[in-house]
Amino acid sequence: MSDIAAEQVREELSNWLDENWDPDLTVHDWWIRLAADAWAHPALPEAAGGRGYGSAQMSAFNATMADAGVLGPPMGLGYMLAAPTIAMHGTQEQVDRLVAPILDGSVGWCQLFSEPGAGSDLAGLQARAVRDGDEWIVTGQKVWTSGGQVADKGMLIARTDPDQPKHQGITYFAIDIDQAGIEVRPLREMTGEALFNEVFL
Fold first, then answer.
1. Which Pfam families match (predicted)?
2. Rounded to an integer, what distance in angstroms lies between the CA atom of residue 122 and that of residue 89?
3. DSSP-derived 3-state class of residue 64
4. Rounded (5°) CA angle 50-92-162
5. For 59-75, how does the pLDDT look when each residue is reduced to its tens digit (9 = 90+)?
6. Could you say which DSSP state residue 82 is in?
7. pLDDT 10s digits, 77-90
């Protein structure tokens, strides 16, 4: 973790923003610029495109961005959940391949955790993943998937060892949503909107 002082974060970021912020840039071009200089997600370790900032440094980062009135990094489930998880538990190859497109806003993610019979308690998880050579065959259904209709990738948890206790034998997968065998169906609300989806695997 970085030991840089909060005041130094403010000064360094302010100077960088003075040199780099351009309101005429497209949103994606701005996100690319943030990511290129490790300002997209400073809480991540340096090996994952961050700066290793702790809570005090992140507070200084967020306050400086807000004070400057500039557009922030690409938020969303990929930014909040996938990137930190992969940075902590993934191989360097996985980090390089999966985290960078999150930080520059190229790839959006959804969360494939909840099921019709398994919500916050994963003991009831029914989705299965079976190894087949170099691939995994996944079967099951997920529900309450925010943004599933627009996501590029999904954080999927599935049971890979049914002989283990119910809270074990579960594996976290990063999957492409746009592939054969995956169907995303909107859950229409009383308002007519469809913010959530059910996903069949």
1. Acyl-CoA_dh_M, Acyl-CoA_dh_N
2. 20
3. helix
4. 115
5. 999 999 999 999 999 99
6. I
7. 999 999 999 999 99
Superfamily of structural domain 6-103: Acyl-CoA dehydrogenase/oxidase, N-terminal domain (1.10.540.10)
- How many of the other CB atoms lie within 10 Å of CB of 97? 13
Structure tokens at 122: 């994963």
> Which residues, other chains included, contact 46 with Cβ-Cβ below 8 Å and sequence gap of 6+?
38, 52
User: Which residue blocks in the chain are alpha helix, DSSP H?
Assistant: 6-20, 27-36, 55-68, 77, 83-89, 92-98, 100-103
Query: What CATH topology corresponds to 109-200?
Result: Butyryl-CoA Dehydrogenase, subunit A; domain 2 (2.40.110)
Two tokens, residue 199: 């996903």
The domain segmentation of the chain, as residue ranges, is: 6-103, 109-200
